[in-house]
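User: Hello, beginner here. Can you help me understand these amino acid letters and fold codes? It all follows right here:
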Amino acid sequence: MAVENMPPLPVPIKLTSDIYNYQQWKYVSLSYFDYHNLSGIIHGTEPQPPLLQSTFSNWSGRHQKGLSWFNREQKALNWLKATLSESLQQIVMAGADSSRKVWLNLEDHFAHLSHARIYQLKSDLHKVKKDPTIPMAEYLEKIKQLATDLAAAGAPVESQDLLHVHILAGLPEQYNPVGTWIKHNTVSSWDDLCELLLKEEMRLDPQRTLRLRHTSPPSPPQEEEYAIGIDLGTTYSRVAVWQKDHVEIIHNDHGNRKTASYVAFTETDETHLVGDAAFNQVVRNTANSIFDTKRLIGRRFSDASVQSDVKLWPFKVIEGPGDKPMIVVTHNGQEKQCSAEDITSMVLEKMRKISETYLGSTVKNAVITVPAYFNDSQRRATKDAGISAGLNVLRIMNEPSAAAIDYGLNKKAGWSSPRNVMIFDLGGGTLDVSLLTISTSGDFQVKATAGDTHLGGQDFDSRLVNYCVEEFKRKHKLDVSGNERALGG
């Protein structure tokens, strides 16, 4: 799928052996190759032409074509050199005589990385926190060992990420001053960092050793009962948990804070994909890749908005019992019908599993946000989907209200009088606008709401696609409105 008017990339991605960044790099690179007409060279469908003698008679013909190929081959190689880290270049470019060979070496390199091992190590690294029972030396050693294991598995953690995302982020609040100092000054080595933090530990708690000696052995840890918040979006969803006096948005198994609200079914086996994995294959499996179910859930098939959307979606939606919209897919060689609640349940289950992996604990309780203009039917259907996903849905909360709570928690410090706040929430499929008054204690009162449950980024995309289709038809006398691949799935 070509990327029209692809903007230049002033700072190329420097890909390392981190498998989670590989997917992003691959997407950007394929878009670049598509835009610059290099895809055939990379994929091997446009092989190197035979060497030709440069006679005057064939110079303007086949030889000129060969020269063009070599220029494009060099352009592809230049991109690979510019976007791969030096360490990865040494692995995949050594002995490679073409951009095609480098590309194959890259795919082979990442195919051999242990996905499960890397994901588990990254999950363990995110969980490491410094609490009062853990000495600083043990805390630092645990992080260092996990970073070493990740490097050995082929997914090294960048030094700055190790320092800021893991070491400093896992420290209690009383370490904030030294953390701020470290962020604004250069610490030359790991040993210097350890010495600095160990000294700070001694300053903050000089009686630690004596106290630990006289402390009775701790009782066996009890599994903590968590409640998560799920931002169920039309295009992307997020899951978060309240920890250490702040909201922590949890990364998924691809290392992203947002997860695509996509579900894909395979035609030949019983498996199905949810989230980013489903999104990444949508171009080659458009009819069985389901999205936008937030625009279907709790609605009737005869609703005008549903009838409008059905014309745009690449998957098939039919009228089911009781005027309920049903999505038709081919799964394991058989035609299957799914409701919007079924698909939403799969997305919510994915978000639950993401949180469980991060927290290392079973998660049952959840708050799910929906647009303020969702009616009772849409709210009930969303709650039913949550129950099907194994969740105890504590509350279905309006998205602007959730935003107001977060704003009040983060901004109320230092307020001497109430504030009037407008929440403008424009998502992939819905628009909510709310006016609220937030008190100095963080309580808020909704003054007015407005919005549209069928206005969002997807509608802007659809208008742009329709415009481009009409322009293409006018200029080239060809109608591509029925070509799903041409329209981007």
